[in-house]
Amino acid sequence: FLYFIASPAMPAATRVEESNPIIARVTPLRAKPASQWIFLGPFFAVEAALIASAVDPGSVWDAEYYNDNQRAIDFMHLVAIPVVFFVQGFIGLLTVWNTRFAAQLRYSEASLTNATHLHVETKPHRGEPKILPVAQSSEFVFQQSTWRYNAARDRFEKPAYPVSHAFSRYTEAMDAPPHENAAAMRTSRAEFGGNVVDIRVPEFHELLVDHMLAPFFVFQMFCVTLWLLDDYWMVALFNGFMMFTLECTVVMQRQRSMKSMRDMGALPVTNVSVWRGGGWTSLPSTELVPMDVVMLDSDAPAPADVVLTSGTCAANEAMLTGESTPQMKTAIPGRDPHRAATELNIEEHARHMVFSGTQILSSVAGDSKHKAAVGVVVQSGFETKQGNLIRTIIHSQSRVSENSGEAFGFIGLLLIFACAASYYVLERGLADPTKQRWKLFLTCTQIITNVVPPELPMQLALAVNTSLMALMKLKVFCTEPFRIPFAGKLDTCCFDKTGTLTTDEMLFAGIDKGDAAAGKVVRTGIAGSPELVLASCHSLVTLADKKTAGDAMEKAAVDALGWTCTSSDTVEKSGKPAAGSTSGPKRIDIVKRFAFDAAIRRMSCVVTVRGDRHSNGMLVLVAKGSPEAIARICGKVPAHTQELADTYASQGLRVIALATKTLTCDTAAVDDMQREDAESDMDFAGFALFECPLKSDSKETIELLQGGLHRCVMITGDSIPTAAAVATKVSMADDAVAWVAAEDASQKLVWQPYHAKKNDGGKSGPSAEPPANVPLFVNAEALSDAAMDDVIKRFAQRVAVW
Fold it and tell me: What is the per-residue pLDDT for 774?
């Protein structure tokens, strides 16, 4: 330890691109010969001298001095030899437990050209650091990613995947494919590797050795050794057998969980149509490399991360996001002169991306040349979104260290008493000439080691193993079993609203046109603009079996109004219309979609209306979204609109505002239409109301958690009134006493009662500090960044609804 402290620190210079989220630094090392390891040669010399002195004292000590001090010298030999062996073993184990110790004691710093190994240190919570052998080509593989040395930049880098090219580059990939010959293909394969997500499950003996070298297990075996030396051999052997058996059981459970993870995360190998050599050819998905042009078939898994260049897809992303609603994917506008130069950003342009691991439910060609949607591979293997998810799971810390200050303080206090007791026993024992010095040494050592009961790790392992068995019966798999005890430290539980506290089912509650009859909800006989918007402004898709998939709210509206999706871009009036409905359009064709954008909280579509009165085909822009978002794009909105929307939302209803606009252009001009120009001067068409029933056990679950002193919080994208109503119903918060965050004229954070009373003399006016012990509601969209920072720093522990 002193050698490590005195040694120079690792070089601060980083040899890896700083923007990577995993590796902190890479240090070149050269392995030392074993003879230069400080915990071998010097210790062997000291041990040899001590043993020689114990066997033949006359060769070391003066005879007269030895005779006068024989008892003390013999006791020194008795204590020093096992202590030196212990220190040597402990330092050797430190090089196993900590890579920095290993780098200092078993390696020396070196230039990259002379290095035999690389010390890879990770950023917090990004896996364990490792010392890896370096290849001749100055590359290494860490967490399934290959890193190569870039001499020009003097750092290690991952292969540069084509994730930020201009839209036009992807659109033109078929016209100028990058893999025109075998040599180009071999170069890409060598750079990016195969399109494989394969998780290696360690062998049983590998995991067992890893567990047996863990500090807790080594401490247990040390205690067992002390008991064997002190004639407690029956207890020692029984405890040793129990600890070994429990470790074997935990290892088997880890293996089983990792195999389940491998089965869930592995990419199925399928045949994919790839554009090679000027034509389509069928290849295994493992042969794909970035910038390959592929055709995405319906009812098939996505082979890699693909950006769509032609056509549309409906993908089920539940494997990645947990969201069961299929997502509509559209092609990038690579041929649009206004957007062709836009650089791809996977996060911002997710609606154009089909991610690996998702299931393609429907694939529609963008032109007559192809039979399905076409896209370009941008990421493969473990660099895909699915691969990154799997990497995060399998490479997070396999063991959790307890860094609780209270725990260390408690053990330190016990250690003081143990040392005092050990000193007392040693002093009394040395004063007794009949006392065996060996037994005395063992007793003193056992007193100190009993500060941490040797049975504690065994009891912990038994508890963890029992928990693992219980979780497996519930089909919950844990790859890091030693995190289980930390579940007892949780004090806050966060819930989404839709699909978690409420069901996934959406019930159409009716329409309020927001006109002179505002406040009147119409459930039947809906016609005109509201019907047109709800029937055509959606992202529903028709699958191969003619079933409709998509957002539950959109499906509920279309079904309630008596419409049917005959294809992904066409809806027709059903043969049996809803009761009380009036005559109107018979078919609506969706010409262009402006997908839902969370930043502006609305979507719109350009549609062609066909029916008895519109046989020539009228172009209409239909839009829906949050009341605030729709109000911004309407030319005129009734004055009471927002108040009416808040009233419905406070009843727990989801409120969707509707708008329409008749277009005077022809269909050919729609392709060049820009969203900003189209969504303006629209006509307000009312509100669509939807009800999402609570789950039967939501309230009971929240009350049970609160009974266990867990704070329950809701995090939702819905409006504050809707969230507040649900929070009140499930006993998460009482909106009658809640306060909500706002900003004053100078953009400073203030709080005011959620149900502010009028004419109360200003008692319910804004305040810089909310009253104590009242739930707080925060709408992040309504606050500036500075105000949100203030909320998080000062009031985060009191917020009930975000």
Answer: 86
